[in-house]
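Team,

Forwarding the record for the chain on the shared tracking sheet. I've put the sequence and predicted structure together so nobody has to dig through attachments.
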Amino acid sequence: MLFSELRCKEVININNCKKLGNVTDLEFDHCTGKICSITVQGKFHFLSCFSCDAGCVIQYAEIKQIGPDIILVDI
């Protein structure tokens, strides 16, 4: 899977079914080449022009499933 495909997917927390945002970055181990974590950008608030949710870093172990449209995480 390409990063361009991964960043189009929406990340959803399975504990509360809340949309967390989209993947903006990922961190990987340069020795093994395995993904360590993904960074999810928070959503922009329409009513507040200067405010947005803070992004969060999700460890790879917290990713439960990557589907064709969404990524399910357990945080």
